[in-house]
Amino acid sequence: LAYALSWNSSPGADEAIKKAVRYIDRVPEKERYLIRGEDAIVKKDVNLGLSIYKELLTLYPEDKEVNYLVGDYSFHQLDYPTAVATLKKVISIDPTFSRAYQHLCWTLMFMKNFDEMRRVANQYVERAPSTGAYTLLAESYLQQARFDSALLVCENGLNAFPDDGRLLQCKGDIYLVTHAFDKAEIEYKKLI
Hints:
- 76% of the residues lie in helices and 0% in strands.
- It contains 12 helices and no strands.
- The longest helix has 14 residues, at 29-42.
- It starts with a helix and ends with a helix.
């Protein structure tokens, strides 16, 4: 519960983790690590939380969620090589794991590895289609000024998810970057 609440800085994460820590001796070993790691994260000690998750990963190297946690927090700590390795591991375990695709694409974008980002985003669209997948694929083209390809991805995404706000905004942003202001305005007005 604390993990989900802390995503959006929702109230209650402190209270939830305190309760979990209070009863930590009643749960199995793996969950003890998860509670300790989340307790550190909630207390804003990401480095400690990440080190606990990495220790847990040595005990459960094939665990999808543990690999994801290491990849997620490694990305946010700018440790891109670790993020790439663990997020790829997640996808090899579960080829439909959306959060891993999302964070792997972000990592590759920050590394400016746009060709690999596009390859991963294509997989994301194929294996776990969503507006986020299409948006990341369009972004991979946009980062290399391949505007026509980015627009085509947005159109394909809108065919699958009609009137989706994120895809409409992405399309408008592409028009804006290419100075097609009239077309950008048309797309942005669809958001109102």
